[in-house]
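Sigma 54-interacting transcriptional regulator
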Amino acid sequence: MTVIARARTLGELLDTPAYAGRKPFDGQIRLVQDEVRENLTRKLRAGENLFPGVVGYDDTVIPQLVNALLARQNFILLGLRGQAKSRILRAITGLLDDHVPVIDGVDMPDDPLNPVGSEGQHLLEVHGMELPIRWLPRADRYVEKLATPDVTVADLIGDVDPIKAARLGTSLGDTRSMHFGLLPRANRGIFAVNELADLAPKVQVALFNILQEGDVQIKGYPIRLELDVMLVFSANPEDYTARGKIVTPLKDRIGSEIRTHYPTDVKLGMDITAQESVRAEHVAVPPFIAELIEEIAFQAREDGRVDKMSGVSQRLPISLLEVAAANAERRALVGDGEAVVRVSDVYAGLPAITGKMELEYEGELKGADSVAKDVIRKAAGAVYGRLLGSADTKELEKWFENGNVFRFPQSGQAGAAMKATKEVPGLTELSAELAASQSDDVRVSAAEFILEGLYGRKKLSRAEELYAAPEPETRQQRGGRWN
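Structure:
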């Protein structure tokens, strides 16, 4: 490609080996879908990672996506928010060539050998082999538009420019008098429409006409644009009823409808969260805390007070981990010791939870903070059950039943906090078992997690940082052993 990249005119381009024997208007058009298919085929044979950073879709979404690309189809990704739809669409640019030649000096990227725009055709006729060309990198061949109800045909396709028509001496119906929208400017590339159902039906029909027939009516003038563009979409199933729908002619022409989903297990979710979160390197996140943060998203998706149609985005655990790590860092900066994330830091991240949950009526009555705290409690109980479900805590529970309470230290040296935990029978030993590190800061985090886990399993009660025996009604629910 280094030799071809030096070509600045059509004549120089035709002197390169890749274009030897080609002639203008020879009809040998390599469509974007063909280009994507060829590069995808090569990567599949080489065993390369097709979509770096996309985790958890290897056996579900990716095979369907590969099939659609091999079949040269336009497609739509259908799924709830926070399911990596936009990331997947952007990753398809990795299947384009590094650079492609286009005619220089025109608004719409056009093939110098087979231009589809009237302006490019005119320049080719005028300049011939001296036609100036430029090289378009793959990053500039991806155009994305977030659909909203106020998007117009002019925004996506274009509009008649009377001033341009007067300057060029053309009629208003001539494509040379058009001001091109986003779709023509994506010629020879990929055009992505996010949240397709939000587009007005008129705009969707214009998209359909361009793709199917290569023509569209703008201000009453029939305009023909046989674009070479790969069109991909994303949409949320909720939008089909809440805000709009995809018109039948367009939906029928979309080759594949591919359903995305949330991570199917906590470990996959943890991988995604660790990959996407941004935090200071010196802040340590113990594995049990990372699992707790991920479990919060899973519990929220199952909670009856949270709107399942809206979903709980994967951005919830990502944002929560970032805020919890920041709180741990702040605590270390004003005190001493390591910055290690604890349960109290997770509670400090409530704003990262409440803003990402759409509540049902029951949840609205209870309040977002209350629902979020309840979700944290359930998550702590679930993770504790997986990690320490078989641990013997009878002596610890008995200590609380005897009327003792324990306020977990939130400041000061980790050594002092560990010393304080020794008054709770068995807590120090359990925290040492859970903590993979011998660091006091990590063991303090483990000790707080253990108490929170017992609270989540309704073996303790909690008021802020104060842990005590479970409430009387909770004891009765657990089988009457407390009577």
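Residues 479-483 have pLDDT under 50 and may be disordered.
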